[in-house]
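Regression test case RT-17, inverse folding.

Input:
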């Protein structure tokens, strides 16, 4: 059956369960965000206490004023003026001390979050921001073990993570509220960030710096899993793409290699080696496509290939209006890339 899609039918795609994961510092998934959570509750309690004291003070003042049957005449009142000055000076001193207390708590939390976490050898990942997707390079000390994926970051639980951040076009910002505070990705510069995940879960991240028309649709997933699951995933990702197993998949591979796909994408183990778009070597193993805006199923993938501009206007990928048989074969091949 040929695959023909429109942007309208994508509105009826299944709900994405990871969209329901709270993007909140109050749902910490690692020790770094736990520190920030504690800082938040300290600020909240402190400001709530200050607010209550202010309301109580104002209420007492208004109650005293209302008890006066006749308004007091306005005359020179040196004793009252002096009392007022003392009150103002006391309020200024108290406010200054309060601000220094909050500053000290912030500096302490920032210092605790700036040191690399202790633990085994870190996992080093280079994250490169593009308009509007994420290139994820897994770096290894062993030659030939590096590989690239896109829009999905797999991490082992309990292991220090070292992220190297940069951009190829405009300023982007890495932000996973449950794992780490935001850090900008700057064109031509490389910054870094350290953190550790303590809970196995799928976390959703987002670009937190306006970077163009589709900034709001520049998301990604962080898949935190046990060391054993992560190791199995790592070994699978390092392998080249699986060879087509059926005649339809072989036809789909030829469609990929003889059309515009090969000009922008890489599939390791084939002639496709361009880095303009996401690496598709293990595309079918990912949970989402399009910067974590669509579930990675055959329907959404077909709609994305045919007309990505109707889904994410301004994206650099052009429409690919393939004949039905070629699109069917191409989808069969891409679904085989696990």
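Golden output:
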């Amino acid at each position: 059956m040929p695959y023909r899609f429109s942007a309208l039918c994508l509105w009826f795609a299944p709900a994405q369960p990871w969209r329901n994961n709270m993007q909140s510092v109050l749902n910490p998934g690692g020790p770094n965000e736990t520190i920030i959570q504690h800082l938040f509750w300290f600020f909240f309690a402190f400001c709530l206490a200050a607010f209550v004291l202010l309301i109580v003070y104002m209420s007492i003042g208004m109650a005293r004023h209302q008890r006066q049957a006749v308004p007091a005449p306005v005359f020179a009142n040196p004793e009252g003026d002096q009392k007022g000055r003392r009150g103002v000076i006391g309020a200024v001193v108290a406010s200054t001390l309060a601000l220094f207390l909050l500053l000290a708590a912030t500096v302490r939390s920032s210092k605790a979050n700036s040191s690399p976490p202790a633990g085994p050898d870190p996992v080093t990942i280079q994250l490169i921001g593009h308009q509007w997707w994420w290139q994820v390079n897994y770096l290894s000390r062993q030659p030939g073990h590096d590989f690239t994926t896109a829009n999905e970051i797999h991490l082992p639980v309990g292991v220090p993570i070292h992220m190297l951040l940069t951009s190829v076009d405009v300023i982007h910002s890495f932000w996973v509220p449950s794992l780490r505070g935001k850090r900008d990705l700057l064109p031509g510069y490389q910054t870094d960030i350290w953190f550790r995940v303590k809970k196995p879960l799928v976390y959703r991240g987002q670009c937190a710096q306006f970077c163009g028309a589709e900034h709001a649709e520049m998301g990604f997933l962080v898949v935190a899993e046990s060391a054993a699951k992560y190791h199995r995933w790592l070994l699978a990702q390092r392998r080249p793409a699986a060879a087509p197993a059926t005649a339809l998949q072989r036809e789909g591979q030829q469609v990929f290699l003889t059309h515009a796909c090969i000009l922008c994408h890489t599939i390791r183990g084939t002639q496709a080696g361009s880095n303009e778009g996401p690496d598709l070597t293990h595309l079918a193993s990912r949970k989402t496509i399009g910067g974590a805006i669509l579930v990675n199923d055959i329907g959404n993938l077909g709609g994305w290939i045919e007309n990505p501009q109707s889904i994410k206007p301004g994206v650099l990928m052009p429409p690919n209006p393939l004949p039905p048989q070629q699109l069917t074969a191409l989808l069969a091949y891409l679904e085989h890339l696990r």
